[in-house]
Design goal:
The protein is α/β, with parallel strands linked by helices and 238 residues long. The chain has five helices and twelve strands. A six-stranded antiparallel sheet has the order 4-3-6-1-2-5, covered by helices on one side.
């Protein structure tokens, strides 16, 4: 059974005007065990009942020697949990965290299908962890399709651009819905995968992560393109 652990914040970093990374660590140099793509649930002091203070966030980096977990969190308008983290929490703040969970992970090695990762906003977090862990070891191709409003909202841009330069099996596409920029798609993630994968392929698997509106639309569009439900894996954010 998953248990709750005492953790504390070791680092905080701005990622965009509305997104920060928070690193958590267990005391006594213990390791938080997890698979890339999984999430962790925090107990935040924002409600009278413990359960009402639970917030789950995907882990944004692969396991590493620092024994930390990185969470990529957006400040939501009126969101009690994210507001507390952004405005009240700091280095050294203690937070109870549940053992990582979830099944939004890549299949066991080696991959037999090419992987298309479609996300918006902080939905990129589990994909970053997966790519850090698997990109260099796989012959399968990966295509990360990331959507946000403006260039200022692009998360981990330099890291993903470096991955694309260094790995022939990785493609990185950014769609900006409210801004036109050279090298970017002006629009939404849907037009990117529809254009790239409109011709039906049985050797693809689509991973979707983001808010429910985007997920629902992507599932519907992929179904209309003829992709089987077994080729679509989704992680909802709300």
């Amino acid at each position: 059974m998953a248990k709750w652990n005492p953790t504390y914040i070791t680092r905080i970093q701005d990622r965009s005007p509305t997104v920060k990374s928070f690193w958590l660590k267990l005391p006594h140099h213990e390791r938080i065990e997890y698979e890339p793509g999984q999430f962790i649930t925090l107990e935040l002091p924002v409600a009278e009942r413990r359960r009402d203070g639970w917030r789950s966030y995907s882990i944004a980096a692969a396991p590493n020697d620092t024994n930390e977990v990185e969470l990529c969190i957006v400040k939501l308008p009126g969101g009690k949990g994210s507001t507390w983290l952004f405005e009240r929490a700091g280095i050294g703040t203690e937070i109870k965290a549940k053992d990582p969970g979830g099944v939004f992970t890549l299949p066991s090695k080696p991959l037999t299908n090419d992987v298309v990762m479609v996300c918006t906003g902080t939905g990129v977090a589990p994909f970053r962890a997966m790519l850090q862990d698997r990109l260099g070891d796989e012959s399968a191709k990966f295509h990360l399709i990331f959507g946000c409003r403006t260039e200022r909202d692009v998360l981990y841009r330099e890291e993903f651009e470096r991955m694309e330069r260094e790995h022939d099996n990785f493609t990185y596409t950014v769609a900006l819905s409210r801004e036109e920029r050279p090298g970017r798609v002006h629009g939404y993630v849907h037009q990117v995968y529809e254009q790239a994968y409109g011709a039906l392929r049985d050797d693809l698997i689509f991973y979707l992560c983001g808010w429910s509106v985007m997920i629902d639309e992507a599932v519907d569009r992929l179904d209309k393109l003829g992709y089987d439900k077994s080729q679509v894996v989704a992680e909802l954010y709300g």
